[in-house]
Amino acid sequence: MKEAKTKERILDSAEKLFAKKGLKHTSVRDITGEANAHLAAVNYHFRSKDGLLREVVQRRIVPLNRERLRLLDNAAKRYGKKAVPVETALHALLAPAIKLYFESPHFLRVTGQIVSDPDDEVYKIFLLHFQDVFSGFKEVFTESLPHIEDEEIMWRIHFLMGAMIHTWTNHSGLERLSGGVCKLSDEEETINRLIAFCAAGLRAPKYNHPHEDSTEVPEKEKRSIQKD
Amino acid sequence: MKEAKTKERILDSAEKLFAKKGLKHTSVRDITGEANAHLAAVNYHFRSKDGLLREVVQRRIVPLNRERLRLLDNAAKRYGKKAVPVETALHALLAPAIKLYFESPHFLRVTGQIVSDPDDEVYKIFLLHFQDVFSGFKEVFTESLPHIEDEEIMWRIHFLMGAMIHTWTNHSGLERLSGGVCKLSDEEETINRLIAFCAAGLRAPKYNHPHEDSTEVPEKEKRSIQKD
DNA sequence: GTCTATAACCTGATAGAC
DNA sequence: GTCTATCAGGTTATAGAC
Predict the structure, then answer these.
(1) Does residue A160 sit within a domain?
(2) Any atom of strand C under 7 A from CB of A59?
(3) Which residues of A touch B165 (CB under 8 A)?
(4) CB neighbours of residue A13 within 10 Å
(5) From A192, B34, B36, B202, which residue has the greatest number of CB atoms within 10 Å?
């Protein structure tokens, strides 16, 4: 039985521990211990802990986004000159991610941690790899929803990405809040729920909330204003 | 000019730096340096760095959730026996958060980092404080949307919380992806966009994605299956 | 080229003087 | 209650064995 290379073993251990214990609570010693490698191997292969994290992300995010665009392209060809239905495009965007979740459950919890820290260096490679996906899907949604203006469509893509990310990274919270009823166990069911929600959100009519005095916050409840 | 108490100064500095530099890249020395306090003051007032983080969260999350339930209660009284419209309930859920964003822009970026690490101890107080909000709003949505089954409503609350959290924590990413078009600058505009999206998502009809062979992933693109 | 041993430096926590 | 000194444990860097 041939051993996996040290580099791969470190990547696998890092992905698992980053997801399970969190980025900040996982030390390089934890990782090398689990991977049967020496402390300095991380520095040799990845330069630093952050460099390791960067490769943990890249090795999965690149094929993920390639697959999303491949499916979108397939759909565009199938529909020819007709606009791709919103649900079909959403499936191309969401299905590869949930497939990845069931194949590598740890990975998407790592990405959740990165995405929530926008000034982080690692976050920037994230955005970089997502740029093409964002543009491609925005274009398709614009064709399928000609009555929704450009800026609104981009906001709604943002909202649905949030729904998606939250679903993977945080389902344990939902499971607890729902008293065990809502579990992320069925791949197809989850994707259908997400598509239903997001498709309706994308098509939604504009809304303007009325100004009612009765909903105003009483003065005594005011919180201190913070600058800087 | 009376100086603010050391404890308050530390909390403010911690909130700011946790948001700007991220939890993992902010040291206690950074915080005490900014707050003109001494290293050991953190340990004295908060027991540990995590204890400090816990109080950074609690001092804002408690009034936030109280305000959400107050607004929901107001709405319920206003509508009496009639069901509260989905948009009105959503406003009660979302508006206090975005108000908080504009008052204390750093805070919600801190929460984003905590929420994305579900095994963290700090995350658990988060869930604890959210339990009542979740139950209260679930009940109202169930009355307003009698044709949607219970489990589906809970999933959809999960989705819309994701859209909301992503909006605050990650708008800088959207700003970049949209080429500067989408900015989180107008409080009312943003809340109206979110309500439109989420209300439609809550009302959405069920969806079942068809199984089409042409969308299958080719074998050569397979990724390694990961256990454990 | 791959990995190890070791050293330098930084971070969180704490005991005890003030 | 506040601050200094110090420690155990973490990350990063480098010289050199294989």
Answers:
(1) yes
(2) no
(3) 162, 166
(4) 21
(5) B202
